[in-house]
Amino acid sequence: DIDLRVKWPNDIYYSALMKLGGVLVTTTLMGDTFHALVGCGFNVSNSNPTVCINDLIVQYNKENGSALKALSTTQLIGCSVTVLESLIDAFQEKGVAGVLPLYYKRWVHSGTQVRLWSEQGPQACVVGLDDCGFLQVESEEQGVVSVQPDGNSFDMLRNLIVTKQR
């Protein structure tokens, strides 16, 4: 019940407030064999500089009169691998339709108003993901546009999608 969210393309947040972790996926295709290397990082028990999962558990217990136990890194890895396996199974069975509803349930961007490319750029509304997983935004000037994560960054504090500086 703790409000964990996904920030496009690969961050894990508490609500829309604080980053708790991230996920990186590298893929290769060799012949007809597809390989995916998944890396995850979570702030489990380090309270500084922001907040950690175990701080959120303590807060949840106080607010709800519950007695959830703090997580060890080992427990979190085990839970994460179990969930990842079920997501892979759902994807293999149903394709994107097997995982996208859960993704949308947990993502922070639904209906977010943003500016594109600069603080004076066109205003747009986040509408979802395209078939390749790119963020889709809709503006009056440009209609629906896909934003690729390799070249762009989503600055949530300023509601701004900008080209990454290299």
Automatic annotation (TrEMBL):
UniProt-listed Gene3D superfamilies: Bira Bifunctional Protein, Domain 2
Keyword Ligase on entry: yes
Residues annotated as domain BPL/LPL catalytic: 1-92
Record's keyword terms, sorted: Ligase
GO MF annotations in UniProt: ligase activity
Name of the protein this chain belongs to: BPL1 ligase
